[in-house]
């Protein structure tokens, strides 16, 4: 445009219109959400009218590992500045809050953010401490009324006796979390619509009890000693992973087999390394949940065949063989 002006030619009127700034707020929000957060923040220098555009975002994604600055303190300063400004000056609704960071020793700031967010209609919450010091989830964490997805990493959970219901929660993922048997059972009972449950590297959990009639997907690891699924009408996918931090095998794996063998709706079963090794050593796969006509895919992952002498899988006694049902068979 400046080139045409220097030539003394009239600048077309369409060039004078800032077509992006004139877009509806919802469209601008979609565009900015496609950018990495810090790039979205940088749009504030484009023009005066763009100074607060990034504060309209309904989703906040902050990942410590994606910040290019190598200095730990500067990374935290950037996260603190962006998060504080976003929460204090945000216009509109906040639907998603995603934070993966080295937060310690700044947990008081984190707790203040959580307290503020607990008063909003947040739908997705992800919190993960990347350092070695876990944070303790405050009690007002359980005030969220419209959460649909909750992801927690490297924290301690104590469930208050007065906990309300997560009546809209569909997905719960806990990784490197400390919680005892009773507290987890109490929490799950307060999630009546739970569809997907992930429990990996859980400290203090030995006996897993699940009463979730809507549950369709379950992912656990070999750290858990015992599994009891009291209601499994919809459970179609089960994944049992290795527990790399705890090399010990499942101590009472027969109860796990017994539990899985009763899953009448199971369609996909994914098993990992050590669990397969123990099962093969005792020929326990012969009695695994392959006897129903619902299982269509069996995946064996991270299998160390040098540790397995015989791997035999058979259907239950009867005229039908396992190949009648299985459509997929993977060894990865």
From TrEMBL:
Native organism: Chenopodium quinoa (Quinoa)
What this protein is called in its record is: F-box domain-containing protein
Residues in domain F-box/LRR-repeat protein 15/At3g58940/PEG3-like LRR? 112-246
What Pfam families does its record include? F-box (PF00646), LRR_At5g56370 (PF24758)
Task: Tell me the domain of life.
Answer: Eukaryota
SUPFAM superfamilies listed in its UniProt record: F-box domain (SSF81383), RNI-like (SSF52047)
Domain F-box, residue spans: 20-59
């Amino acid at each position: 445009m400046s080139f045409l002006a220097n030539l003394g030619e009239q600048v077309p009127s369409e060039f004078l219109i800032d077509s992006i700034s004139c877009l509806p707020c919802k469209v601008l929000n979609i565009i900015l959400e496609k950018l990495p957060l810090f790039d979205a923040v940088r749009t504030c220098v484009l023009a005066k009218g763009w100074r607060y555009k990034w504060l309209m975002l309904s989703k906040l994604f902050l990942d410590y590992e994606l910040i290019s600055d190598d200095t730990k303190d500067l990374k935290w300063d950037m996260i603190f500045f962006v998060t504080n400004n976003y929460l204090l000056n945000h216009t509109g609704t906040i639907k998603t809050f995603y934070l993966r960071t080295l937060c310690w020793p700044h947990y008081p700031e984190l707790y203040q953010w959580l307290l503020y967010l607990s008063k909003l209609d947040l739908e997705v919450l992800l919190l993960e401490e990347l350092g070695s010091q876990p944070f303790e989830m405050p009690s007002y964490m359980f005030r969220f009324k419209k959460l649909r997805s909750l992801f927690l990493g490297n924290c301690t959970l104590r469930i208050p006796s007065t906990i309300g219901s997560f009546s809209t929660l569909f997905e719960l993922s806990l990784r490197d979390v400390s919680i005892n048997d009773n507290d987890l059972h109490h929490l799950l009972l307060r999630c009546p619509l739970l569809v997907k449950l992930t429990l990996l590297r859980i400290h203090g959990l030995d006996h897993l009890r699940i009463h979730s009639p809507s549950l369709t997907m379950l992912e656990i690891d070999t750290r858990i000693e015992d599994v009891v699924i009291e209601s499994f009408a919809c459970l179609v996918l089960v994944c049992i992973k290795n527990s790399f931090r705890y090399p010990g095998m499942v101590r009472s794996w027969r109860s796990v087999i017994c539990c899985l063998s009763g899953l009448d709706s199971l369609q996909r079963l994914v098993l990992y390394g050590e669990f397969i090794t123990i099962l093969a050593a005792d020929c326990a796969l012969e009695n695994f949940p392959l006897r129903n006509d619902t299982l269509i895919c069996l995946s064996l992952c991270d299998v160390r065949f040098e540790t397995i002498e015989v791997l035999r899988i058979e259907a239950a006694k009867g005229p039908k063989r396992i190949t009648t049902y299985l459509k997929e068979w993977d060894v990865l």
